[in-house]
Amino acid sequence: MGAENLKLFIANEWRISKTSVWTPVYNPSTGEVQAESPDALPEEVNEAIAAAANAFPSWAETPPPARAAILFRFRELLLKNKNALASILSRENGKTIAEALGSIDRGVEIVEFACGAPTHLLGDSIDNIATEMDFFTLRQPLGVCAGIFPFNFPAMVPLWMFPVAIACGNTVVLKANERCPLSCGYMMNLLVEAGLPAGVVNMVLGRKGVVDILLRHPDIKAISFVGSTQVGRIVYETAAAHGKRVQTLCQAKNHALVLPDCSLERTAQAIVNAAFGCAGERCMALPAVGAHEKIADCLVDEIISRARNLKIGPAEDSKTGMGPLVTPEHLARVRGYIEKGVAEGARLVLDGRSCKVEGYPNGFYLGPTIFDHVTKEMAVGKEEIFGPVLSIKRVGCFEDGVALINASPYGNGAAIFTQSGYHAREFVHRIQAGMVGVNVGIPVPLGYYTFTGWKESFFGDLHSHGKDGIIFYTKKKSISARWFKPEEGGADKIGTWG
């Protein structure tokens, strides 16, 4: 039996693509190709955009409480089918079941936030701002919005996008990642079951050509993107040049600073969780640690001991602590970085390249890998690897650690491990990163707040979800109103300014 040819989702219908270009969708645990993803033709992408544009007028006029009611039903369906969705996510991405369930829960948070749209969309008003004049503001939808997202969180990241967009009255075209499109497709069926009208959310599949159309199409009013900095910069520049609102969440090289007064065991465990969770395939992973030289040896020993105890195995096995990487190409890329680190002179204290999983000889497995004595010039210490590779950089003092982190061109997240309130406060105040953890390895805000990357980790003015999400997906209208007395209704001359 051959791999399934996946379809496009347009106007609440699944459409067979006429393309001749297909991308394999692997099961990373087994190495098998489970499906083929189409590279949609231009006319198919345009059809999805047209469906969203046709749906927009009536959806924009749908009262916010009615839009929220559909999202409430969608939330209930997500929770009811969470295990099934997590299984699909594990099979296409390689996340463990626990990781898959956790990512769905974080996505549900955004849906819950979006359900509050009637409150989030409240405007401002003041009466008698001038003589017999009142003033108020409204938030209104933009139109058709596009979401482009990566392979690493193929269920959670679209949930960062379309629930807020449609809650605000917009319609959406999603460009699902061609390597991991199954979980997003599953959610499209849940939207239909929830009662979402045809055309409000559509899903296309493909690569660069599909993205290029979305960035330039005149009916697309806003672009939300998650991916690499190289591509994100192009997305931002191209879409902005075509008059669109843009938010691009890009790559990172998050660092932690570990001071001698930290809780050693809890710090080591937090680092292992943050560095190797989701096989390191997340922009808020912790791939680099600035370890104070007074505690570095003990810290490295603790991290190695805990990393060695991680059970590597197939994603759907409940006993698995770390699953495979997403594709053979990505596995080769990460292994290449390990080889580069060795060549650069970093001390390889834990080598995951020999990892084998019994019964799964063709899976894309790599064990936890740790480099010590990494310097600022080494690629393994400054470039995003996006795999289970941890770099330890030794620092002599707090100031050196802050300087080390601030020298990075990326600014997604940073963390400090210490029991000192003074140093924690100084770190929070001075560190150049948008999300900061104090004794927290992955400082990702809950869905009710905003995901706030800095520097080359983000391009745009308004960040994803939370209050920024509402502002991003709406335009503000200001109204000045003056009403005349009934007996003055026949006045035929009003000055230019009132």
What are the salient characteristics of this protein?
498 residues, alpha/beta, Aldehyde Dehydrogenase, Chain A, domain 1, Aldehyde Dehydrogenase, Chain A, domain 2, seven-stranded mixed β-sheet, six-stranded mixed β-sheet, 38% helix
Structure explained in plain terms:
The protein has 498 residues and is α/β, with parallel strands linked by helices. It has two domains: 4-250 and 457-479, Aldehyde Dehydrogenase, Chain A, domain 1 (3-Layer(aba) Sandwich); 255-438, 3-Layer(aba) Sandwich (Aldehyde Dehydrogenase, Chain A, domain 2), CATH 3.40.309.10. It contains 16 helices and 23 strands. The strands form six sheets. The protein has a seven-stranded mixed β-sheet, sandwiched between helices. It has a six-stranded mixed β-sheet with strand order 10-9-8-11-12-22, sandwiched between helices. The protein has a three-stranded mixed β-sheet with strand order 1-5-4, with helices on one face. α2 (64-80) packs antiparallel against α4 (97-114), α3 crosses α4 and α10 (264-276) crosses α11. It is globular, with a radius of gyration of 25 Å. The termini are far apart. The mean pLDDT is 96.
Short description:
The chain has helices at residues 42-61, 64-80, 82-93, 97-114, 117-120, 156-167, 182-194, 208-216, 229-241, 264-276, 296-308, 328-344, 379-382, 398-406, 421-430, 466-472; strands spanning 4-5, 8-10, 13-15, 22-27, 32-38, 125-130, 133-141, 144-148, 171-176, 201-205, 220-226, 245-249, 255-258, 288-292, 347-350, 369-372, 389-395, 410-411, 413-417, 435-438, 454-455, 458-460, 474-482.
